[in-house]
Amino acid sequence: MKSSFRCLVLCGVFATVCLVSAVKIVDKVDCPCSKQSLCQPVNITYEKEIFVFSVGGKDWAKYDWSLITTVAMFGDYDPGLMCQAHSAGARVVLKGLPPVSNLSDPSARKAWIDQQIALAQKQYMDGINIDTEDALNSSEAVYLTKLVAEARDAFHKAIPHSQVSFDVAWSPDCIDGRCYDYPGLAKASDLLFVMSYDEQGQILEGPCIAKANSPYKKTATGVQGFLDMGIPAQKLVLGVPWYGYDYPCVSLSEDGVCTIPFHPYRGVNCSDAAGSQKCYNVILDLIETMEITPSWNDTYKAPYFTYFNESKQEFHQVWYDNPVSLTYRYKYAKDKGFLGVGMWEADCLDYSPAGAAASQAMWNAFNSFL
Ligand SMILES: *[C@@H]1O[C@H](CO)[C@@H](O)[C@H](O)[C@H]1NC(C)=O
Ligand SMILES: *[C@@H]1O[C@H](CO)[C@@H](O)[C@H](O)[C@H]1NC(C)=O
Ligand SMILES: *[C@@H]1O[C@H](CO)[C@@H](O)[C@H](O)[C@H]1NC(C)=O
Ligand SMILES: *[C@@H]1O[C@H](CO)[C@@H](O)[C@H](O)[C@H]1NC(C)=O
Ligand SMILES: *[C@@H]1O[C@H](CO)[C@@H](O)[C@H](O)[C@H]1NC(C)=O
Ligand SMILES: *[C@@H]1O[C@H](CO)[C@@H](O)[C@H](O)[C@H]1NC(C)=O
Questions:
Q1: Which of 233, 224, 139 is nearest to 186 (CA)?
Q2: Is 140 touching ligand 3 by the criterion CB < 6 Å?
């Protein structure tokens, strides 16, 4: 209201100023939120981050917004989610898939960054989460670091207090061929989201068997690798899985070890790609319908169970995470002084009244980090 009034006054004085202002006002009228202020970028600095991935649908209305500080919108743009995040003081960031094949071309990098900023501004967003999981060698990786640094500088300039984050694998050790410059990426971005899951993407040692998605020790050793490179814990967000893997067993030993089929993945024969990913809510449904009592593996600090699929006539073993296993990991992140914790992904829960209690327990587990 105030600015339209000002425009009317200016209108009488300078016709050109009025034209320019009118264009800006049209933009502002586009704000989809109930209050204009909700279209402002979030300017709060959080000492601890709870970083959430949202993949689509309307379940975001049921997220625990008292905890969330950043939500990465990986589904289609949803203005309702943006308004909700802002009303809770949470940043909402773009999904950024960089032009990997053209990274060494400065004009291609700039074109991509300009495009992302324009999109973020149009959608009243607070930054970008850059996600590329392509295999790159060290000479190509130099340009990835450049892109992230350029994106950070440009975003910070265009959108005050905006956040530029980058997703890294569970360990800096060239996981799945991702030989990125991790210390460089940490310097170039506001935070690194460590994807401490899919840790069996390449099973290099031992028998080809079903294992936890995010085994406790492997997770800790992996993130320690980033710290050992001199990356400050205050740059790291420990990302945990809200999904598990359901593996078919080619054989099941007496003590319950499930041998899984060979499945090549980036040069290795044994991989979690032999299994299928299942969201936590789907796993809970399976436990309920099949009346399963899950077991606990104390080596991995993770729950699991085995069931028999009648129609396929085969055993399956499911490894997943629950509030108990996640609490171990959140406490670890807290002890190490990490900037934050987060998950892939927030829509893996049943937010209906029947599932509400189990879902809230997953959110509550974040409190062990705070
Ligand atoms: C932060 O944002 C709020 C709401 O948009 C605004 O009222 C306040 O002036 C801003 N503070 C700073 C330091 O930018
Ligand atoms: C890479 O650059 C070429 C030439 O400029 C362009 O045609 C192509 O679309 C670009 N690819 C990506 C993924 O940006
Ligand atoms: C990295 O990969 C690129 C493209 O595949 C190739 O041209 C280059 O020679 C490789 N560099 C090294 C150091 O392996
Ligand atoms: C956990 O599972 C792995 C793989 O099946 C097995 O090697 C290990 O002995 C188990 N740990 C415990 C404590 O049962
Ligand atoms: C993968 O399996 C093939 C065929 O069984 C074998 O020839 C090859 O050596 C294996 N590769 C690795 C990396 O184990
Ligand atoms: C068992 O396998 C069938 C056939 O693939 C599938 O439709 C069904 O969902 C499976 N059952 C369970 C409990 O996963």
A1: 233
A2: yes
Ligand nearest to the CA of 99: 2
Candidates 346, 348, 286, 291; CA nearest to 318 is 286
Atom number, ligand 2, closest to the C-alpha of residue 107: 5
Question: Which pair of structure tokens corresponds to residue 309?
Answer: 């699929």
Paired residues of 305 in beta bridges: 318
Which residue's C-alpha comes closest to atom 3 of ligand 4?
211
> Is any ligand 1 atom within 6 A of the Cβ of residue 367?
no
Question: Domains of the chain by range and CATH?
Answer: 28-242+322-368 (3.20.20.80)
- What pLDDT, in 10s, does the model give residues 211-220? 999 999 999 9
Judge whether residue 4 has pLDDT over 80. Answer: no
Q: Distance between CA 131 and CA 128 in Å, rounded?
A: 9
Q: What is the reported pLDDT for 265? A: 86
Cα 45 to its chain centre, rounded Å, is 19
Flag whether pLDDT at 6 surpasses 90: no
Q: Which atom of ligand 4 is nearest to the CA of 298?
A: 13
Please state whether beta strands 314-319 and 243-248 pair in parallel, antiparallel, or not at all (unpaired).
antiparallel
Handedness of CA 24, 25, 30, 36 (dihedral sign): positive
More confident residue, 266 or 11: 266
Pocket of ligand 2 (CB under 6 A): 99, 101-102, 108
133 has catalytic annotation: yes
